[in-house]
Amino acid sequence: MPLHSDVFQAPSGYNAPQQDEPGSNTVVYWSENSQVKKKATGNVYTYKFYTYTSGFIHHCTIRNLEYDTKYYYLVGDRNSMRKFWFTTPPQVGPDVPYTFGIMGDLGQTYASNITLTHYEKNPEEGRAVLFVGDLSYADNHPNHDNVRWDTWARFVERSAAYQPWIWTAGNHEIDFAPEIGETKPFKPYTHRYHVPYRASQSTAPFWYSIKRASAYIIVLSSYSAYGKYTPQNQWLEQELPKVNRSETPWLIVLMHSPWYNSYNYHYMEGETMRVMYEPWFVEHKVDIVLSGHVHAYERSERISNIAYNIMNGICRPVKDPSAPVYITIGDGGNIEGLANNMTEPQPEYSAYREASFGHAIFDIKNRTHARYSWHRNHDGYAVEADSMWFFNRFWHPVDESSQ
């Protein structure tokens, strides 16, 4: 969309909180049922990228919030003050229902705008977004034009200001451009999108975990070292045994590059990570793996490819009731178009695939059942183009394949 599009417009009022001048670094907040207003002080960051200098980027952590409570918050000074709200998640527990939206490879095209609108109007009403990477696509513009990071933030504000977006970094977040002197990977992304990685003993913001309601979410980085002895590898090896399925039955993994992909795009780019980590996913009975990167949609059956040992020749995916379902949902809108060239015939492990823009919903009902649906942009808001009931791998490991 052009820079003058209404979804990119800065808020009205002098120095209204977005990114221009330092302004106030205080957030005023209060719960819906309280008149007592509290304050939290944030930190302010700026960065330079080639000839671009960022505005003042504020990060503020609000602590000691009550579960399942609506909070209002104010940012800015006096005349330019802006008011938003969010609802905290329910207390962690095995049968706590919760609804996630799922998106990836969003960008800021007209298709991106439709995707976000469809998610907002979906009657399932997602309470948090699992975002599988590739945010702004600023790097598709000359010299990685970081103005496109500013416009993207204003574009997604209508959702991200009111509910959490749980990020993983994609290849378009790397912003590695030595030809213009930019040699620090992920510079814009890490200045703009902080994640609570230290809470899960991670040493970097690219891999971390979050507990929410009845779900345990593990975020991995396809573009950070993940081989043996690397920090990400050591962290994941220690993290998976920590998951208590009696507390958080649903184990969800986010990454950017898919492990199973029957499109002729990015073929086998996730293969080395799959070889490293797939046995762990099967051992720990991961329920669902979400990825993006391929600009289309695909859902797998429950399969694994872990029997191969160089000698035995067993190197085809096979049905595996302990394995996750792999979902590729890199169809948010991007700027590069749809990946519509598929391998033929469709592999047996591929349950459903389609080159259309859209988003998905993962609606956890209790410890045993979750309802999943994928929604095309060119359908009505409530239409399910693909759907299935997920049966929890730990509490109810029944075959729910579409065969």
UniProtKB/TrEMBL annotation:
It catalyses: a phosphate monoester + H2O = an alcohol + phosphate. The keyword Iron applies. Its EC number is 3.1.3.2. Residues 99-297 form the Calcineurin-like phosphoesterase domain. Its cofactor is Zn(2+); Fe cation. It is an enzyme of class 3 (hydrolase). Pfam families: Metallophos, Metallophos_C, Pur_ac_phosph_N. Residues 20-88 form the Purple acid phosphatase N-terminal domain. Residues 323-382 form the Purple acid phosphatase C-terminal domain. Gene3D superfamilies: 3.60.21.10, Purple acid phosphatase-like, N-terminal (2.60.40.380). Keywords: Glycoprotein, Hydrolase, Iron, Signal, Zinc. It comes from the Eukaryota. Belongs to the metallophosphoesterase superfamily. Purple acid phosphatase family. This is Purple acid phosphatase. It comes from Hibiscus sabdariffa. The lineage of its organism: Eukaryota, Viridiplantae, Streptophyta, Embryophyta, Tracheophyta.
